[in-house]
Automatic annotation (TrEMBL):
Residue ranges of every copy of the Serine aminopeptidase S33 domain listed in the record: 86-314
Organism domain of life: Eukaryota
Keyword Hydrolase assigned: yes
Transmembrane segments: none
A molecular function (GO) term: hydrolase activity
Broadest EC class assigned to this enzyme: hydrolase
Enzyme Commission (EC) number: 3.7.1.14
Biological source species: Handroanthus impetiginosus
Name of the protein this chain belongs to: Putative hydrolase/acyltransferase (Alpha/beta hydrolase superfamily)
UniProt entry keywords in alphabetical sequence: Acyltransferase, Hydrolase, Transferase
Length: 354
């Protein structure tokens, strides 16, 4: 892989990365980590299968005693880049597999890329778990950064992940160099969930992981994809829900009230890039335009003909935008060049910069 990317082999270690030992935990000839639900074998998307094979669990201490350690799931970089690392969060109740299409493209840009599972979601070992409220999610991410990443990062958050990124950047500014917020969902207020009876919260969580609900979500998110792809992407999107502690962690987050970062937005000091889809059916683009006005140091780029997850629908474009921004590329309007099936393309998708 290093040769394919034009990188020196000295940047790549088979088992050791950035000073810590990596365990593959491979279960069988399929190459998937043993901690993933067995249903991973049913997934057909080649990009999801490839990224799933790279998921690791790293130790993250979330309490004062040595027993308070969460083996935290993420995809680790294959090399250390010259620029600051790019750290990818995910949407509400999702996982690092959300970045299956864009992750290898970001690596192709020569970046050091991490895809992190937020505490309570994804594939971390939560058999013994802390609360999964906002404070715990924030502290867990900080400890992961402090233990393993250790340098200021470009933090990327799509949808609710944008709220996670803003909350983290305000509380730990030393850890964040820049922010990339994709279709940001930052004005939702879920405090009403705190009044739910616990039994009802569990019922809602059970419904949330059901195939019909996940299927419907894919229909809203993606336009014009085949039924077979909807089914496969539904299996990808709900894979983490099959872990035995998912419902408990989800209910813990729901009853805590969720994220409300509206009062933190003007405290963000980092330079931010907003990437917004014009055809998003989940988050109204007016919300992003409001955020653009309220953030002290932000630029905004609109992506036409795209839904809620441009990093899946148009990964070449999103990878290019993230790579340029993380390296402080000029923000002037320009053609976007990328490669699709080894064919050089230019200006297939027009970017509107605001």
């Amino acid at each position: 892989m290093a040769v394919a990317l034009g990188l020196p082999l000295s940047h790549v270690g088979p088992r050791k990365l950035l000073g810590f030992r990596v365990s593959s935990s491979v279960a069988d000839g399929g190459g998937f980590p043993s901690f993933l639900p067995k249903e991973v074998h049913k997934i057909k998307d080649p990009f999801a299968r490839t990224l799933a094979q790279r998921i690791q669990r790293l130790p993250v201490q979330v309490g004062s005693s040595e027993s308070c350690i969460v083996m935290s799931s993420c995809v680790t970089p294959t090399f250390v880049g010259d620029a600051n690392p790019v750290v990818l969060l995910h949407c509400f109740d999702s996982s690092c597999l959300e970045w299956r299409s864009a992750y290898p493209l970001l690596e192709g840009h020569g970046l050091e890329v991490w895809a992190i599972d937020i505490l309570g979601w994804g594939f971390s070992d939560l058999e013994t778990r802390p609360p999964c409220n906002v404070a715990s999610k924030r502290y867990h991410l900080y400890q992961l950064w402090k233990s393993h990443i250790k340098r200021p990062m470009t933090l990327v958050g799509p949808s609710l992940g944008a709220a996670v990124a803003i909350d983290f950047a305000v509380h730990f500014p030393e850890a964040v160099d820049k922010l990339v917020l994709i279709n940001p969902n930052v004005y939702a207020n879920n405090v009403g969930f705190t009044k739910l009876p616990k039994l009802m919260a569990y019922a809602m969580a059970s419904l949330l992981k059901s195939i019909p609900i996940r299927w419907y979500a894919k229909v809203l998110i993606f336009d014009g994809i085949s039924l077979s792809k909807i089914l496969d992407w539904t299996n990808v999107g709900r894979l983490h829900c099959l872990l035995p502690w998912w419902e408990d962690a989800t209910v813990s987050f729901m009853l805590s009230g969720g994220y409300d970062v509206s009062g933190q937005i003007k405290k963000v000091k980092q330079k931010a890039l907003l990437i917004c889809s014009e055809c998003d059916k989940i988050v109204d683009i007016k919300s992003a335009e409001r955020l653009h006005k309220e953030l002290p140091n932000a630029t905004m780029q609109k992506v036409p003909n795209c839904g809620h997850m441009p990093h899946i629908e148009k990964p070449y474009l999103i990878a290019k935008l993230i790579a340029d921004f993380s390296r402080s590329a000029t923000s002037e309007k320009r053609a976007v060049r990328y490669f699709l099936n080894d064919i050089s393309c230019r200006n297939k998708y027009t970017i509107k910069e605001v």
